[in-house]
Design a protein that fits this description.
Elements: E1 5-12, E2 15-26, H1 30-41, E3 47-51, E4 54-55, H2 70-73, E5 77-78, E6 81-82, E7 87-93, E8 96-102, E9 110-118
């Protein structure tokens, strides 16, 4: 797939933004893909599971403040799919986090994306 990845970043003074995305297709089930990525994501903090923008399980916000909502955690759109519409794992902080996003499976294959996002910090929070 020619549109399977992106690497974008820019800095302007104190403003810093980075987005890295890679898209994949697998014959594995969404559950198997999510299970595979849980441990590697834990290197970056607690792993939050979200489904359609809502937390799954007891963890609703990480110690660093990362949530499933667009207001604090952001969402990413790739190939016309918004990450808030997917089943995903998130790890990191509200300003620097990683996502494994699973799109709805089709015809025996699962499309998923790996995302790294570094957002500008809120100047008002300083």
């Amino acid at each position: 797939d020619e549109d399977s990845g992106a690497d974008l970043g820019f800095t302007l003074g104190d403003f810093h933004f980075v987005l890295k995305v890679a898209g994949y297709v697998s014959g594995d089930s969404p559950e198997k893909i999510l299970a595979f990525y849980r441990k590697p994501l834990s290197r970056f903090g607690e792993v939050l599971e979200c489904n359609h923008g809502k937390p799954v399980g007891a963890l609703t916000v990480t110690r660093s403040g990362l949530t499933c909502s667009e207001q604090k955690g952001g969402s990413v759109e790739m190939n016309g799919s918004n990450s808030a519409d997917d089943h995903e794992l998130r790890s990191g902080s509200p300003h620097q986090f990683r996502i494994v996003g699973i799109q709805e499976p089709k015809a025996g294959s699962t499309r998923f994306s790996l995302v790294y996002l570094e957002l500008p910090k809120d100047e008002k929070a300083k």
